[in-house]
Specification:
- The chain has 5 domains: 84 residues, membrane protein fhac (Ubiquitin-like (UB roll), Roll), CATH 3.10.20.310; 77 residues, membrane protein fhac (Ubiquitin-like (UB roll)); 78 residues, Ubiquitin-like (UB roll) (Roll); 53 residues; 157 residues, membrane protein fhac: a member of the omp85/tpsb transporter family (Porin, Beta Barrel).
- The chain is built from 10 helices and 23 strands.
- The protein has 572 residues and is α+β, with helices and mostly antiparallel strands.
- It is elongated and about 165 Å long.
Length: 572
Amino acid sequence: MFLAGFSTSVIAVAAGLQQVPPVVVATPPSATQQAPEPPIVPDDAFDKALPPLSNDINAPLEPMLPAVPAVPEAAAPPELTAPLPALSGFDTTPLNDVTVADTKAPDIRYETVLRGLDGIGLTGQFNGLSSLKGGGGKAPNATVVSARVREDEALAVRLMKSLGYYDGSAVSALEIIPGETGRVRAVVSATPGKQYTLGSITVQAQPTVPPGLVESQLPLKIGDPIDAVRVQAAEANVALILPQQGYPFTKVGQRDILLDDAVGTGAYTLPVDTGPRSSFGTFTTEGRLAFGAEHVSVLTRFKPGELYDNRKVDDLREALVATGLFSTVSVEPLRTGNINPDGTEQVNLLIEQERGPPRSLSVSGGYSTGQGIRLEGAFTHRNLFPPEGALIATAVAGTQEQGATVTFRRSNAGRRDKTVTLTAGANHSNYDAFDAFTTTVSGRISYDSTPIWQKKFTYAYGFELTGTNESVFDFGLGARKRGTYFIAALPGQVEFDQSDSLLNPTKGYRLKLSLSPETSVRGAVRPYARTLIEASGYYPIGGSIVLAGRVRAGSIAGTGRDDLAPSRRYYG
């Protein structure tokens, strides 16, 4: 009934929708109008065929099958019924192993033929990524060669699409080389088709300062080929430049390129979430600290309120690494929601520190014909007096020099790359020019260039107190004589650096002036001045040759040679 009703309703709906006229169906003839058919088996014949039935319902049933005679049990084989042999008579000789050497099937050699990619400049890239080329022209069997051919066929299609040939296709085939057994030719034929170009460029981003900042940093223009490498490089440039222009939280979304095969162009759309325009705020430190946020501010090259620039954050990260106090350190900008009067959002920097081992021990040794044997050892605690207060103990033992020195050094002392050093040491030097036993106490303040931050102007100044007992050859007596000197000095130097690199200069010059007013006391006070001027220049010749030169000139004014301690003289 359910099916009928469902069919009726469907027909009614169909009739209502299509307005089909009713179909007249003829009424079948009634049963009275049809002639009776004769039975297949008459009733009398059917009754005679039935077996006779007994009226005794308790009579036994007739057997269904005749009785089957029993089959005699088969006798067990005599080998199974025989008793087992004694273990003493068992033959324990191992069977001989028969080894058959496997016959190695010969490798299949093949040559690779590429067609169709030369005209679009993809042959070199294909050869560098090809499975056929990587196989060296041989394979263990034909199945491997076929698999490599199919991989290279797909590779050719991918490479064509990477340059904008989206209709490109490739087919591959294996050809038997006539007359060469076990050698085939693998052919990859590519058909690039037309190259698609950018028909429109749409950037979906918030308003920026200055206007159009994202578009100006996306180096794509209408009519450019849809080259995957160029498109990815352009998007990477946006992700790089915007954090340098005050947008540290920029996120470049997934591009969308809608192709129009009728005209061979693509509509390029790039969503960019610039985030808020931001400026530098404060610092927060976490982890196992080597020093706190106050000393972090000493290492920065920016001030609070200054427009955010990711390059200065990278510089801070490199300065933290250069301290040598961390096993790991990271710098991450954090949003605060605080809006400055200029409309920028204040960004705090989170410095996650993991201080490393502060102690180091080094030993070195060697031999040279000029110095003889020399052994040197040093112990350093880089942060014994935090922040960045190091204690360094060194000892030297050798043919010409023996001594020990203790140094206190505070790096980044109140200013980045400003170093304060205090040194005390005792030393014995034995050279051809003199033999000296020296004790020195000195201090120095310097502002230096580093590979991270090369400076145009650097300086250093300090003091030095020295007591030395030295022997020198007296030409009048024709023999050596010893003398004791007490020296007080105020050394200083300035350097102007106009080179293009601290470690690998290719052009420019450097000029350094050293001046040390000194007083030597040996029975009488004898003031004098030691000066030294150094100049170096670099001039490029061609693309890989640099002409470099250095000039040094020095003088010691105000005292005679014999009144000057031999260790304070200039030697060529």
